[in-house]
Write a structure and sequence with these properties.
By secondary structure, the protein is of the alpha+beta class. The protein has ten helices and four strands.
C-alpha cells in the first residue's frame, strides 16, 4: 500500500472525506457522550475511592481528559500521516506527579476507553463498558460500599502508647456505648504516642463521645471528622 504524500492539499482532502463520515452534529454528539461518560467515571471514583487518605482526587481531570482524547482520535481518523504526527507529539508528555493509588490507573483507562468509543461512534460500547465496570467495582469492594453509606465520619484518637495498652478495655467500652458502628481503619505509634483511626456510624452526640473518651483514658486529642456538614444521621 502506497502512502499519500503529506501536504496541505492531502490533509484538506482528508478532512473533506472525514466530513462525509462525521458531520458537525456527529462531532458534537461524540463530545457530549464523552463528557457524560467522564462524569459517570468521576461519580464512580468519588463513590468508591474518594475517601481514601492517599487519593489525589484525579477525577477532577476526567472531563478534560475525555474531551481531549475524543478529539484526538477523531483527528487521527483524518489520515495515517497526520495520525502518526499526532501520536508522536504526545510522546513528549510525562507525568511529573506519581499516581498515588493503583485504582486511579484503572479509572484513567476507563475514561480513555470511553472517549475512544465516543470518537468512533460506538456509543453502545460505552454503555456495556460502564455496566461491567460498575459490576466489577461492586464485586471488588463487596459490602464496603454499603458500609460507606451507613457511616457518619472518621474518629482519630491520639494517646500515649502505654496508656493505650492499659486502657484498651475502657476505650472500647466508651466507643461501643456511643458508636453502634465503628471499625478500626488504621493504627500507628510514633515517639511514644499512638494514633488510631476509626470509621463510625450511628453517632448521636459528639460532645458526649469526647467526654466519655477523656474519662476512659488520658487522650492527648480526640478528633471527630464528619463526612459532610450535618453529617450525623
Amino acid at each position: 500500500m502506497k502512502l499519500e504524500a503529506f501536504s496541505p492539499e492531502s490533509v484538506g482532502n482528508a478532512f473533506l472525506d472525514l466530513h462525509e463520515q462525521m458531520s458537525a452534529g456527529d462531532f458534537l454528539a461524540a463530545l457530549l457522550v464523552s463528557l457524560a461518560s467522564a462524569a459517570a467515571a468521576a461519580l464512580l471514583y468519588r463513590f468508591f475511592y474518594e475517601r481514601r487518605g492517599t487519593g489525589s482526587q484525579i477525577h477532577r481531570a476526567f472531563p478534560l481528559l475525555s474531551l481531549a482524547v475524543t478529539t484526538l482520535f477523531i483527528g487521527v481518523q483524518v489520515s495515517l500521516p497526520l495520525s502518526l504526527g499526532l501520536l508522536g507529539s504526545l510522546s513528549i508528555i510525562r507525568f511529573r506527579t506519581p499516581i498515588k493509588e493503583p485504582e486511579e490507573v484503572g479509572f484513567i483507562m476507563l475514561v480513555i476507553a470511553a472517549a475512544i468509543c465516543a470518537a468512533t461512534k460506538n456509543f453502545d460500547f460505552i454503555l456495556y463498558l460502564y455496566l461491567f465496570a460498575v459490576v466489577a467495582l461492586a464485586a471488588a469492594r463487596g459490602a464496603a460500599a454499603v458500609r460507606w453509606l451507613r457511616r457518619d465520619g472518621v474518629l482519630v484518637l491520639t494517646i500515649p502508647a502505654e496508656a493505650a495498652l492499659a486502657k484498651a478495655a475502657e476505650i472500647e467500652k466508651a466507643l461501643s456505648d456511643h458508636l453502634p458502628r465503628h471499625t478500626l481503619e488504621s493504627a500507628s505509634t510514633r515517639n511514644g504516642m499512638s494514633t488510631n483511626q476509626y470509621v463510625f456510624g450511628g453517632l448521636r452526640d459528639a460532645t458526649a463521645l469526647q467526654k466519655a473518651l477523656f474519662e476512659a483514658a488520658p487522650f492527648a486529642a480526640v478528633n471527630v471528622f464528619l463526612d459532610r456538614p450535618g453529617g450525623i444521621r
